[in-house]
Amino acid sequence: MSAELKGQIRLLIDEKGGVRKRDGHVASYRTIQVHHQVMARIVDILYERGYKLERAENLAGRHVQVLAAAIVEMGLAPKTMKSIWTELGYWADWIGKPGLVKPLHTYLPQVGPERLKVKVATRESKSWSEAGLNVLETIEKADRLDIRLGWMIRLGLAFGLRRAELLCLRIHKADQGRYLRVFPGDGPKSGRGRDIPIEHPWQREVLEYVKERIPKSHFLGWQQTPSGKHGRLHANADRFEKLMQKLGITKAECGVTAHGMRAEYAENIAMLGGMLPATLGGRADQMAADDLRLVQEGVMERMGHGRVGVAAAYYGSFRLRPVPKEGTRQRSPRRVVDAE
Q: Which residues does residue 138 pair with via DSSP β-bridges, in sequence order?
């Protein structure tokens, strides 16, 4: 039964998956969640093709070869294939078989490199507004569904915070006057704190709006679970995702996810800096190359990234020179305060 093998893998993840391989730091909740989801999918793919392993330690070269062929035959996107291949490598390492999983292209010489190449840059905006969502109406619905979710959405849009940062934010402590401080222990990726400038009046309005409604000792996430237990990060993250699904913020339903709040922030802050993002029709020649890079560096630093290249995942690459969608307009940062 595949359920037995999945159970063994869950135990393996509990034992080995809590530490990141590249630097020995504690793995994030999202990383562990990916381990569980993707490795379970690997088991399903192998079982569908008649390879029913009795134990996780039995993973061998023939299983790797079968999986390589299968994920191409299934027509999976390059990013999905990369995720599966990365997790397969973890599985092999954890059972004491490092080197068992070689680079994917070595198993698929007949497949062109473009088919396996992950394209990081986005061609279309991932922001809520450009997806056609009415941001204020969405906030109003969130308030009715769960008031803390409404607060988190306001701050996610205003400051580009990640999910864990929203859940762990202690807003009275974080408000430093001219900037919002994300402390290293309050949810940032890899524990890298940062200061996010408060550079537009609506950001200050959002902060004051939420501060008036939340006790000084509270973090922004839920203090208790619906059953009355202490609200820990993992439970709060699951609750956040389920509420977002109820709100209809899913790729399947509206074309964007909760992560689109960060894309919205990135686009808005880029425009405050005088740069029109590629996803909204901006071109590389809109300003001098050095000035363009400075704006991009500023946006990425605010979002907690150290590389300008990551910007393409949020608001496109100017090398792609995208054609603006019909009806796309230049927009100013939106007010996200007044909905109650």
A: none
